[in-house]
Automatic annotation (TrEMBL):
The keyword Nucleotide-binding applies. Keywords: ATP-binding, Nucleotide-binding, Transport. One of its GO terms (molecular function) is ATP binding. The keyword Nucleotide-binding applies. Residues 10-240 form the ABC transporter domain. The lineage of its organism: Bacteria, Bacillati, Actinomycetota, Actinomycetes, Bifidobacteriales. This is ABC transporter ATP-binding protein. It holds the Pfam family DrrA1-3_C. It comes from the Bacteria.
Amino acid sequence: MTTNTTTPAVSVSKLVKHYGDMTALDYFDLDVRQGEIFGLLGPNGSGKTTAINCILALLAYEAGAIRVFGEPMTPTSYALKRRIGLVPQNVAVFNELTVEENIDYFCSLYVPKKAERAPLVEQAIDFAELREFRKYRPGKLSGGLLRRLNIACGIAHRPDLIFFDEPTVAVDPQSRNAILEGIRRLNRDGATIIYTSHYMEEVEEICDRILIMDHGRHLALGTADELKNMIDTGERITIETLDLDDDTLTAVRALGFVTDAAWDGRELDVTCRRGEHNLVDLIGVLRAGGVSIGHLTSRPPTLNDVFLELTGTALRD
């Protein structure tokens, strides 16, 4: 979702943050457009959480500037903070309160008047599909319902900017789909979303643009397709074959675009660099070797391939 508003929802410029001798943010830059779902990816220790906490004015930093909706963000920017929602990775609710009471409490931190708050609480209950569980305490909820309660508590005050930190960790597929659709709905209703996840398929599915960071630095930014076009990694080709001989496997590995080739006696798995004729050239080598070809698949590079090439590591828990 895009808007005509040119003022970024979040603008971070040359941000520097140290913990002792460790550099957590190294002149980090970030710009999030109003109305988009923005993915923030990085391995553990990359600086994601530090960056978010600095944006929320929960951490002091040594250098740089942060603006939210065009205004400087400081610990006393209460008007700005009322426009922000946070859904943390760890479920943060009170076990002594019911679903309804939890949502009402967190909403009251932003909307003190009960009369104004009551319809917002009802909307949040309906949004998270928790109406039949409104009198339950958290201890009686499943993991997926707990996640939905966590989201309802973070968005009940109708924020314009919402941070989602790993919102689908350890939930079943049905709850995961409900959460992702809920995030899309919030975005369609006008909220700007900043989304972090270890699940690459989620990021690719819902994010308009994605920033990859590591060691406190901005590494790459773009749509999923734009990021894939930045790397040398091409498609991964899998071919069923039972009669591949050593000479033909050596010939496959000698192809200039092949970075890796392995055969387990049933399938040949080939990883390629980017190229226009990789599949044709590979099949040509196999046919020249008299190899019988069965089922064939060609998978384009994924966000995980991008991440691996740019950071040297897979996105890990």
